[in-house]
């Protein structure tokens, strides 16, 4: 795992995946990140892993039960 420290509006670039992550807001114990990348690279929150990716504006699919 790579651990980085970034300040507000600073970016992390992952050129091999054509992804950019930017720190948008830091408030209390929460950091808002913006992630830019090609549409064929899905980005999911960890708790949504295993669900099918949805299109922008489409509600998420219900969680799958093991």
Main beta sheet, described?
A: 3 strands, antiparallel
The beta-strand count equals 3
> What fraction, in percent, of the residue positions are helical?
under 10%
Strand order of the largest sheet: 1-2-3
Strand content of the residues, in percent? 25-35%
Description of the structure:
The chain is an all-beta fold and 66 residues long. It has a domain at 1-38. It has no helices and 3 strands. It has strands at 11-14, 19-27, 30-36. Strands 1-2-3 form a 3-stranded antiparallel β-sheet, with no helix packed on it. The protein is globular and about 30 Å long. The mean pLDDT is 83.
List keywords for this structure.
single chain, 66 residues, mainly beta, 0% helix
Short description:
This protein has 66 residues and is mainly β. It contains no helices and 3 strands.
Topology:
Layout: E1 11-14, E2 19-27, E3 30-36
Antiparallel strand pairs: 1-2, 2-3
